[in-house]
Amino acid sequence: MILYAYHLRYPKSMLRILSGQFRSRRLKTPPDNSVTRPWTGRARESVFNQLRGHINEGIVLDLFAGVGTMGLEAVSRGAQTAVLVEQDFKIFKLLEANIETIQCEDRATAMQADALSSLPLLRIPRPVDVTFVDPPYGMMQNDATRQRIFDQLARIEPLLDDEGLVVLRTPENPREIDHTVEELAGPEIHKVGAGMWILYYGKRVP
């Protein structure tokens, strides 16, 4: 059974913004969630260290945004615009509440939509500097839905800035299961914990 309950990715304890304008602000999370592999502070910091020079004044698309863990961190660190896409209604309402609580409505927009549909790609300003893609692990462990995710990454390519990046989190070892997307360069592979890899894709050089 494929896991579509996006809220299962978050821990019971409050998440906090790690750095930037809204450092230490808490993000609301579901009270009844059950998590096996949440984003750790160390993993998030590792990602944003890799993204130095891409976030400040940048345009960010956050697919499978959940409560805003990555997209709102990007806003705190200086992103000009972030569109955060979440389909689950209850989690989307928490996402909206988090944007309102930290008072970044002028730079962060929550969208309730399927992250693999065309709607987010139509709504995001261009060119996009960073796209976060953090699907439920069950989707990455299923061949059919994993391919749908790769297809969406391919559709993002024309929207990217020449130096833009796509950041994908996966529980599958990319050295054992191919994560190549023909339309994109990469991926550059970083292992950030047990059963967690962060992959970075960019535009191909002509």
Sheet with the most strands: spatial strand order: 5-4-3-6-7-9-8
Beta content: 25-35%
User: Rough shape?
Assistant: globular
SSE succession: EEHEHEHEHEHHEEE
Could you describe the largest sheet, including whether it forms a barrel?
A: 7 strands, mixed
Class per helix and strand makeup: alpha/beta
Percent helix among the residues?
Answer: 25-40%
The number of helical runs is 6
Structure description:
The protein contains six helices and nine strands; from the N terminus they run ββαβαβαβαβααβββ. With 206 residues, the protein is α/β, with parallel strands linked by helices. Mean pLDDT is 90; it is low at 1-12. The protein has helices at 41-50, 69-76, 89-102, 119-123, 137-140, 143-156, and strands at 15-16, 26-27, 59-63, 81-86, 108-112, 128-133, 160-170, 184-193, 196-203. Strands 5-4-3-6-7-9-8 form a seven-stranded mixed sheet. It is globular and about 40 Å long.
Fold blueprint:
Layout: E1 15-16, E2 26-27, H1 41-50, E3 59-63, H2 69-76, E4 81-86, H3 89-102, E5 108-112, H4 119-123, E6 128-133, H5 137-140, H6 143-156, E7 160-170, E8 184-193, E9 196-203
Parallel strand pairs: 3-4, 3-6, 4-5, 6-7
Antiparallel strand pairs: 1-2, 7-9, 8-9
Give a nutshell description of this structure:
With 206 residues, the chain is an alpha/beta fold. 27% of the residues lie in helices and 27% in strands. The strands form two sheets. A seven-stranded mixed beta sheet has the order 5-4-3-6-7-9-8.
